[in-house]
Design goal:
The structure is a single chain. The protein is of the alpha+beta class and about 750 residues long. The protein has an eight-stranded mixed β-sheet, with helices on both faces. Belongs to the peptidase S9A family.
C-alpha cells in the first residue's frame, strides 16, 4: 500500500511544481543587517586643576562608587555594553564554538600537580572528574615509591593492598560553597609539624581574603585564628603559633598578629604601622627558625627578625636600605643570608648579590659581609632546550632535601617542571604537557629511573655532562619556529623581539600578527608557550613579544629606563617593534594586532594613541588606562611600587610625564582607531570604570567605522580560577582577532 500511494502522489507533486515555477517571482536579495550602534553613556563633566594645568573628565561619574544614582546609571550602561558586544560578535558564534572545541583539551589539562616531597609526605593537587575545583591531598612517600600521577593507584586507593593511601586535606569544591560559588585561594601554608593548614579564601561579597586554619588530623576547622582582610601568613613554634598580617579599609597591610593554636587567649598585636605609605609583609625562613617582617614604603625598605621559637619576644631590625629594593633573608648554620639588589655605597646595581651576617652579631647596625660566590658551589649545567625564556624556582618547602625543583619556560615548549639533585647532579623532568597527545605527563618516584625510551608514560633523568644529542624535552621546535632580534628603538637602544610562527602555515609577507608587550615593574615578559595561541599559529598567524624597557628583560637599569618620567621609552620601544614587523614583511602592514595585560594594556593603548594606523586590532585585558586620576585620587589601594612605576602626581615632572603617556588623556580626535576588545572584571586591581571611561571616550573622539568596533567585555567571575571560563574567553578573543584582522 505504501509504494502504491507513493506512485499515485508523484504525478500530483510534479504538476504542483510546474504550477509553482510558472507563478514564481525571484525575490530581491535582502541587504545585510545594519551594524548595531555603540552605547552612548551620559556625560557629566568635572573640572580638575593641578600644577597650573586644567582639564575636564566627562566620565568621572563612572568611578563614584558611593553615588547611588551614578551606580544605577553604570549598571544600565554595563548592560548596554554587554548587549552591544553580543550583537557585534553574533556572527562569530560558530567560530567561537569551534575554537573552544580546539582549545578545551589543551587548556590546563593537568589531572594532578607534580607531587612535592616535604618531610615524610608527598603533597599534590588533583582534579576529580566532573569537578570544577581541585583537591589538596597528601600521601606518605615511604609507602608510595611507585607513585605515578593520580592514576596509579586511582584516587588514592591501592587495589593490591586494599588500603586507602591518600589523605584529602582540602576540597576546594566545598570551599566554593562557603564563599558564594568561588574557590579563589591566595595563600596556603602547611605547618612545619604537618598538622595544620592555614589558607586564605576570597570572600566575594566583602571583597577581602578570609583566613581559616584546618586541623589535618581531623579535617575540621579550628576555632581560631579566623580573621578577615588577611594578606600574609607564617608559622612559628613548630606549628603551635601562626603570625598573620591584616589590611586596613584601603587594603594596606598594616597590622601583624600572633595567634597561639589551642589557646583561648586573644591574638596578640605585634606591630601596627600607622603611616599610610608603609606596607607590611611576613615570611618564614626555609628552616622555620626565624620569621622576617618587611616594612617597605616610598622612602625605605626595612627587614625585622623574629625568633620563631618565641614569637612574642620582640623583633630586631637587621636590614635597612632605599625604597623598592628586593630583600630576602634566609638562615643557615647560625648565619643570616641576605639576597638583595640594594644600592652599594650609594650606587645602584644592575644585579642581585648575596650578603651574610652571624645571627649573634653584637653590632648595631648589623655588619653584613659579602657571602659566597657562585663558583664556590661548583655549578653544573642543565642541557636546556632552545629558546628558554625563564627558569623559575619551585616551592621547595623541604629545607633539608638535596633536591630542588625548578620550572622552565620557552615560547616553543610547554612548561617543564624539573627536579635537580644537588648531590649527584641528576635532573629529572617531573611534569610537562605533551601536545602531540594533548595530555600532561605527571611523574614521580622510582618510576623515574626506568627506561628513557618509554617517553609516553615515564619521566626522564639526565645529567649535564652526558646528555649528548638526546632531546628529552617535549618541545615543538619541529613545528614552530622561534626567532630573536634586537630592534633599534627611536634612540638607538636595542629592544629584544621574539617571533614565533608555524613552519608550515606562515604566509610570506602576508601573515597576520599579534604583538605582546608589558614593560612594567621590572617583570620579565611572559613568553612561555600558551596553548590558546596554537589556534592562531596553526592558521598562519605570527606571535611576537616585545621586551620593552620597564620590564625585567635586561636587568634593573632596563626597568628604571622605562618607569616614571621614562615611561614613554616603553611605548616607543613597542612602536619600534611593531614597525619592524611590518617593514621586514614579517607581518602584513594591514594585519597587525596588539595585546596587553594590566600595565601592558596601558602600553598598547598608549602606542595606539601615538600611531592608530599602525594597528588593525588590539586586545586589552584588565588594562590600566587612566593613570592621571587613578594615581591622583586612588579609589582602590595602590602600593609604593605603583607610584615608583608610574610616577607621583604631586611631583610636577612626574605629573607631566603621566599626562603625556596616559591612554585616557591622549585619544586622537577624528583618527581612525583599530578594532579593540577591552576585557575587564569586577575583581581586578584596576577598576572596571577605567575600561568603561576609555571605551566611551575612544568612541566619542575617534572616527566611526563599524568594521572596527570598540568592545567592552565584562566578567563577574575570576577567570583565572575557572578553566571553562578561560577557554571561553580565549575563544572569544581569538574569534575577535580573526573577524577584525583577517576580514
Amino acid at each position: 500500500m505504501r509504494h502504491l500511494l507513493t506512485a499515485v502522489r508523484r504525478p500530483f507533486l510534479r504538476h504542483w511544481a510546474i504550477l509553482q515555477s510558472a507563478t514564481y517571482k525571484p525575490q530581491k536579495p535582502q541587504p545585510p543587517p545594519s551594524p548595531p550602534s555603540p552605547p552612548k553613556p551620559p556625560k557629566k563633566p568635572v573640572s580638575f586643576c593641578l600644577h597650573g594645568e586644567s582639564w575636564e573628565d566627562e566620565y568621572n561619574w563612572m568611578s563614584q562608587l558611593n553615588d547611588r544614582v551614578a551606580m544605577r546609571h553604570m549598571d544600565v550602561y554595563m548592560e548596554q555594553e554587554e548587549k552591544y558586544t553580543e550583537a557585534v560578535m553574533y556572527d562569530t558564534e560558530r567560530l567561537q564554538s569551534k575554537l573552544q572545541a580546539e582549545m578545551a583539551p589543551r587548556l590546563a589539562a593537568e589531572l594532578s600537580s607534580p607531587p612535592l616531597r616535604w618531610g615524610p609526605w608527598l603533597y599534590y593537587r588533583r582534579v576529580e572528574e566532573g569537578k570544577q575545583y581541585p583537591l589538596l591531598c597528601r600521601r606518605l612517600a615511604s609507602l608510595n615509591e611507585e607513585f605515578i600521577s593520580n592514576k596509579s593507584p586511582s584516587a588514592g586507593f591501592d587495589f593490591t593492598s586494599g588500603k586507602k593511601i591518600e589523605q584529602k586535606l582540602l576540597d576546594y569544591n566545598l570551599e566554593s560553597e562557603r564563599f558564594g560559588g568561588y574557590a579563589y585561594e591566595e595563600l596556603s601554608e602547611v605547618s612545619p609539624d604537618h598538622r595544620y593548614l592555614a589558607y586564605t579564601m576570597y570572600d566575594k561579597d566583602n571583597d577581602y581574603f578570609k583566613l581559616s586554619v584546618r586541623d589535618l588530623n581531623f579535617g575540621s576547622l579550628c576555632s581560631k585564628p579566623q580573621a578577615d582582610r588577611v594578606s600574609g601568613i607564617a608559622w612559628a613554634k613548630d606549628g603551635q603559633a601562626l603570625l598573620y598580617v591584616v589590611t586596613d579599609d584601603k587594603k594596606r597591610p598594616f597590622r601583624l598578629y600572633c595567634s597561639m593554636l589551642g589557646s583561648n587567649d586573644e591574638d596578640v598585636l605585634l606591630l601596627e604601622e600607622l603611616q599610610e605609605n608603609v606596607h607590611l609583609g611576613i615570611r618564614h625562613t626555609k628552616d622555620f627558625r626565624y620569621l622576617t617582617v618587611n616594612a617597605f614604603s616610598t622612602q625605605s625598605s626595612k627587614v625585622f627578625l623574629i625568633n620563631a621559637a618565641d614569637p612574642l619576644s620582640g623583633m630586631t631590625l637587621v636590614w635597612e636600605c632605599e625604597a623598592n629594593a628586593h630583600c630576602i633573608i634566609e638562615h643557615h648554620q647560625e648565619y643570616l643570608y641576605l639576597f638583595t639588589d640594594a644600592a652599594v655605597q650609594g650606587q645602584t646595581v644592575d644585579h642581585h648579590y648575596l650578603l651574610r651576617s652571624p645571627v649573634a652579631s653584637p653590632c648595631s647596625p648589623r655588619n653584613w659581609e659579602v657571602g659566597v660566590h657562585l663558583k664556590e658551589f661548583n655549578p653544573q649545567n642543565l642541557p636546556l632546550p632552545d629558546h628558554v625564556s625563564q627558569i623559575l624556582p619551585g616551592p621547595n618547602y623541604d629545607f633539608y632535601s638535596s633536591i630542588t625543583r625548578l620550572a622552565i619556560t620557552s615560547p616553543v615548549m610547554p612548561d617543564a617542571v624539573v627536579d635537580y639533585d644537588l648531590v649527584n647532579g641528576k635532573w629529572t623532568i617531573v611534569q610537562q604537557q605533551n601536545l602531540l597527545y594533548e595530555r600532561t605527563r605527571v611523574l614521580y618516584g622510582s618510576a623515574s629511573s626506568m627506561n628513557i625510551s618509554q617517553k609516553s608514560s615515564m619521566s626522564k633523568n639526565f645529567c649535564g655532562n652526558n646528555a649528548g644529542d638526546d632531546r628529552p624535552w617535549n618541545d615543538l621546535a619541529e613545528y614552530y619556529a622561534c626567532e630573536e632580534y634586537d630592534v633599534p628603538s627611536y634612540d638607538g637602544v636595542l629592544v629584544p623581539l621574539t617571533i614565533l610562527y608555524s613552519r608550515h602555515r606562515k604566509k610570506n609577507g602576508g601573515s597576520p600578527g599579534l604583538l605582546h608587550g608589558h614593560g612594567a615593574y621590572g617583570e620579565p615578559l611572559d613568553k612561555r608557550w600558551r596553548n590558546e595561541l596554537k589556534s592562531l599559529l596553526d592558521r598562519g598567524w605570527v606571535i611576537a613579544y616585545a621586551d620593552v624597557r620597564g620590564g625585567g628583560g635586561r636587568g634593573r637599569k632596563w626597568h628604571h629606563d622605562g618607569r616614571r618620567t621614562n615611561k614613554l621609552n616603553s611605548v616607543k620601544d613597542y612602536i619600534s617593534c611593531a614597525k619592524f614587523l611590518i617593514e621586514r614583511e614579517v607581518v602584513q602592514d594591514t594585519k597587525l594586532a596588539g595585546w596587553g595585560y594590566s600595565a601592558g594594556g596601558l602600553l598598547v593603548a598608549s602606542a595606539i594613541n601615538f600611531c592608530p594606523d599602525l594597528f588593525r586590532a588590539a586586545i586589552l585585558k584588565v588594562p590600566f588606562l587612566d593613570p592621571t586620576h587613578t594615581l591622583l585620587m586612588p579609589i582602590l589601594p595602590l602600593t609604593p611600587n605603583d607610584y615608583e612605576e608610574f610616577g607621583y602626581p604631586g611631583d610636577i615632572e612626574d605629573f607631566r610625564a603621566i599626562h603625556e603617556y596616559s591612554p585616557y588623556d591622549n585619544i586622537r580626535k577624528d583618527a581612525l582607531y583599530p578594532a579593540i576588545l577591552v576585557t575587564s572584571s569586577f575583581n581586578t586591581r584596576f577598576g572596571v570604570w577605567e575600561a568603561a571611561k576609555w571605551v566611551a571616550r575612544v568612541r566619542e573622539y575617534s572616527a566611526y567605522d563599524p568594521s572596527r568596533p570598540v568592545l567592552l567585555n565584562l566578567t563577574t567571575d575570576i577567570v583565572e580560577e575557572n578553566r571553562y571560563l578561560q577557554c571561553k574567553e580565549a575563544a572569544m578573543e581569538t574569534a575577535f582577532l580573526m573577524k577584525t584582522v583577517e576580514s
